Task: inverse folding
């Protein structure tokens, strides 16, 4: 998927959300389109490649997830709920995330193939596992799983 495909999809969904009167969704989709365009301009390209456009969407989801944590720590359940709703919208443009079982299987494969052992191998195993899963895995989950596997 190229940036143009992703942008066209976001723009079509924005139009549909406007017609449905869903202001919250419209705001999130406009922000997402704007961020993708900004990264394209900042990098000096006419159109981002599919992976780069998806990276922008992943970053938007991660930023909101971090905000949820902060709002919950501050006791602002209302703002945390709003951010969760925005995450749901943003994640609709991401490929399906790898399950923990898939992450565990990939990490075991990397550890066995590279004959990794001990905590000093954690960084290599995390990097290789994320690459093997094509960026569909959450980095925190990969780090936790790899640490567990290398400890045992």
Result:
């Amino acid at each position: 998927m190229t940036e143009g495909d992703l942008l066209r999809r976001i723009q079509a969904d924005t139009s549909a959300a406007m017609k449905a009167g869903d202001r919250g969704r419209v705001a999130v989709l406009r922000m997402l389109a704007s961020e993708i365009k900004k990264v394209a301009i900042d990098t000096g390209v006419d159109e981002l490649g599919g992976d780069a456009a998806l990276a922008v969407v992943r970053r938007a989801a991660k930023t909101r997830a971090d905000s949820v944590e902060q709002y919950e720590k501050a006791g602002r359940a209302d703002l945390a709920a709003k951010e969760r709703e925005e995450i749901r919208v943003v994640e609709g443009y991401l490929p399906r995330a790898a399950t923990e079982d898939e992450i565990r299987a990939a990490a075991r494969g990397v550890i066995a193939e590279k004959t990794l052992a001990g905590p000093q191998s954690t960084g290599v195993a995390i990097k290789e596992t994320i690459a093997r899963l094509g960026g569909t895995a959450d980095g925190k989950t990969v780090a936790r799983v790899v640490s567990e596997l290398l400890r045992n």
Summary: The mean pLDDT is 90.
